[in-house]
Write a structure and sequence with these properties.
Radius of gyration: 18 Å
Helix content: 25-40%
Largest sheet: 5 strands, mixed
Strand order of the largest sheet: 4-3-2-6-7
Structural class: alpha/beta
Oligomer: single chain
Number of helices: 5
Number of strands: 7
Length: 188
Amino acid sequence: MCSVDLQQRPIIPFGGAAPVVKCIESKFNHKAKYNRGRRPQRDVWVFGVIMTEYSPARGYFTIVDRRDAASLCPIIEQCLLPGSEVHTDDWGAYRNLAHLPNVRRHKVVVHACHFVDPRTGVHTQEVESCWSRLKFGLKRKKGIRREDLQAYLDEVMWRQWRGGDHTQIMINFICVFPQHFNVNTPAL
């Protein structure tokens, strides 16, 4: 239901002149403990574009097969409004973000040196906090199949952007999308 709602009423683009947008990728694999258990067949990477205007930060998350500029830059262009300031780490795929049409300014933090750039104050801590919350939800579920990961990310995005009283949200969702349910739409 959350994926359908996000397709019908998208949360992107966001950003613009005032707030800062932070982009980073993270690996979402099962970690074997004490080198025992099954290993993932291939790495699962999730790319996130985070809006820092809100606390906790809200974002757009999607699974990516590759972490190169050809894969990440189109997602960033799709997510951002013109005039956005973007903060990233020093991953090579982000080197030419300043050339994207929607990016006004691109600032970088080099994590090998420090977590917060002492000259500019640039950091990616909100993104790391988002990853922590996303991965904690997966730990509570004791993992999730790769095929279901994007649906889980869609649910998280939906709750971040459309949050509130979940009972009322579900009632509104049924009223807006009655074709997905076998119910008659009540008069509002």
